[in-house]
Amino acid sequence: MQKLIWATAVWGRAYLDLLRETHFPSLMAPGNFPALGRTIDSYLYTSIGDAEEVADIVGGMTRFGHVQIIRVEDWPPPPFAGMVGAMHDVVGRAWDENAGLLYTFPDTVVADGVYAAVASAIARGFRACMTAGITAMEGPVRDELMRRKAGTQTIAIPSVELAALGLAHLHPFSRAAQWQSPQFTLTPSMVQFADGGSYAVHAFHQVPIFVLPRRRATDFRLTLDSDFMDVTGLAPEEITFFDRVEDYAILELLAPKAKAHEIPAARTASVADVVSWAARVTTPMNRWLFSRRYMIAGAPGSPMPEADRVVREILAGLGGGAPPTG
Questions:
Q1: Is residue 79 part of a domain?
Q2: Calpha distance 223→103 (Å, rounded)
Q3: pTM above threshold 0.90
Q4: What is the spatial distance between Cα 235 and Cα 243, in angstroms, rounded to a whole number?
Q5: Is residue 326 part of a domain?
Q6: Does residue 322 lie in a domain region?
Q7: How many domains does the chain have?
Q8: 19, 145 Cβ separation under 8 angstroms
Q9: pLDDT by residue (tens digit) across 116-136?
Q10: Backbone φ and ψ of 36, nearest 5°
Q11: Which structural domain, as residue segments, surrounds residue 292?
């Protein structure tokens, strides 16, 4: 691996504001991009009308390497399709340039120290770092982050504090993923558990915050946090997980009504519903990832018997959560 590539896709005023105010400042915290100690070339995918502003926001990346703004002339509808296209393009670029990939989402905040931990994982021979987290209400969280940023250009918030801030302002999308919720999500890509002072997440779709595939890996159909890991050629022992409270990596920020279509009017959670959904839209890799517990709050190893039972029954209904082979 000669270098790293950072990429993201940004379109429209909402994402531009998040990129400028919270996302990019968190990437520039002392324990993040500056701690990687490697060349980082940047690829920013955006519409023609937003290109100049994106270039202005990320101008500080020139200290690490080349910065290229890729103007998408006709951003394909819906906007999500543009993001998927960007993912496919940059995976190919990273392979061609013998680079590790750092793909981020502009509606997230990254805890200070995450990329220092990525650098450590790379030094230990890992080729992918996975994470999963929770979703918070954009308004109050952004207000607090902007208060912290006052007078500086970066947002440096430790993992434990970022997780606590997210839990204090949980988005309805995360509340609907809670096993105890009376309005359980119709699309359970993750299941969240609250037990006293502990909070945990099991996710079928996890985010590779760093990945160095063993093959070109551009033949995934959906997204980097869906079926991409199936085609990287990586063995399970080459993947590490940022799954402890002190490693909490990213917090997603959403407006109040975002993803409301995924929350039904009233529905209690059941193992059968999760199994039925996952049997149709997940792969053996997704199911193995689901077996990993991400602690958002609470001590490592805190007993969570209900979560243990539910996860065990879901995986049994899907044929197990063994590491995928071949």
A1: yes
A2: 11
A3: yes
A4: 19
A5: no
A6: no
A7: 1
A8: no
A9: 999 999 999 999 999 999 999
A10: -70, -30
A11: 3-317
